[in-house]
Specification:
The chain has strands at about 5-15, 25-30, 40, 45-50, 60-65, 75-80, 90-95, 105-115, 125-130. With about 140 residues, it is mainly beta. It has one domain (about 5-135): Jelly Rolls (Sandwich), CATH 2.60.120. Strands 1, 2, 3, 5 and 8 form a five-stranded antiparallel sheet that branches. A hairpin with a 6-residue loop joins strand 6 and strand 7. It starts with a strand and ends in a 10-residue tail after the last strand.
Length: about 140
């Protein structure tokens, strides 16, 4: 079976101060560089989590470095949780069709309803790919 996956890489967290205007004052709370070593997820690893400790109390969106394999389909959901196996505090789902094409690794924005977090307390970004990949003739 041909291994078809999405690449989940670097992450940027956007935080706004709770008293600031929603879009004019977005701040980058944490970031990692785009590119470099990432890891594959999709058919063989449909769930990925990353812990983080915000330095501010409000989270507005997350950007993740991703690209799409030509046979990928379905949706991707990114959610924020206080506990790894807890309930989602907020989430955003997009179509795999909205990702950059195969081999073009770029930032993908998950702009979800804003939430209040406790600065310094561990939270989790949860990435879930639904539906995996389309079968190809090579899979037969």
């Amino acid at each position: 079976m041909k291994k078809i996956c999405l690449l989940f890489g670097a992450v940027i967290l956007f935080i706004i101060p709770s008293c600031a205007s929603l879009y004019a004052n977005e701040l980058i709370d944490q970031s990692t560089p785009l590119g470099g070593d990432g890891f594959h997820c999709g058919v063989y690893a449909p769930y990925v989590a990353m812990g983080f400790r915000p330095t501010l109390n409000s989270l507005t969106k997350v950007e993740i470095g991703l690209f799409r394999n030509e046979n990928s389909y379905g949706t991707i959901t990114v959610s924020i949780r206080e506990k790894l196996y807890g309930d989602d505090l907020t989430s955003k789902t997009i179509s795999v069709d909205d990702l950059p094409p195969s081999g073009v690794y770029d930032w993908v924005e998950f702009d979800f309803p804003d939430i209040q977090l406790n600065a310094g307390k561990r939270n989790y970004i949860i990435y879930t790919q639904n539906n995996g990949t389309k079968p190809t003739e090579d899979d037969a």
